[in-house]
Amino acid sequence: MSLQSDIAIQNSMGHAGHSFVTTTAAQAGNWSGIQVVTATVISSITGAAGCVVSGVYSGTTLPAGFFIPGKFTSFTLVSGVVVAYIDRT
Predict the structure, then answer these.
(1) CB 26 within 8 Å of CB 12
(2) Element (DSSP H or E) covering residue 6
(3) Cα three-residue angle 45-77-70, rounded to 5 degrees
(4) Which residue in 5, 16, 85, 87 is a FRET match for 28, CA 20 to 30 A apart?
C-alpha cells in the first residue's frame, strides 16, 4: 500500500484523534470529517486546499448520524453536537 492510502485509511478511522464539539465558537484546525451526534445546524464550513465545499449549510438541519467527509480548516455550529475528526496531514 502507498503512504497516501495508509493516511486515507487512518483518517477514515479517526487515527489522529477527534474533538467533541458542543459550542458555537468557530473551530479552526485540520479536520478529515464531521460526524453529527445530535440534530445540528452549521453556519459555515471551509474546505482545505483542494477540497471544494458547495451548497448551503446555513439554516439546514443535519440529522444525527449524518457524516460530512472531506478536508476542512474550519467550521462553526449554530446548534447541535458533532465529532470532528482530526486530519493526519
Answers:
(1) no
(2) helix 3-12
(3) 35
(4) 5
Whether the full predicted model's pTM is greater than 0.85, yes or no, is: no
Beta pairing class for 67-86 and 18-21: antiparallel
Residue type, 34: I
- Residue entry with cell 465558537: 25
Alpha-carbon Rg for the chain, nearest whole angstrom, is: 13
Does 14 score more than 80 pLDDT? no
How far apart are the C-alpha atoms of 15 and 22, rounded to whole Å?
Answer: 21
CA distance 52 to 54: 6
User: What one-character DSSP code corresponds to residue 8?
Assistant: H
For 15, left (φ over 0), alpha (ψ -120 to 50), or beta?
alpha
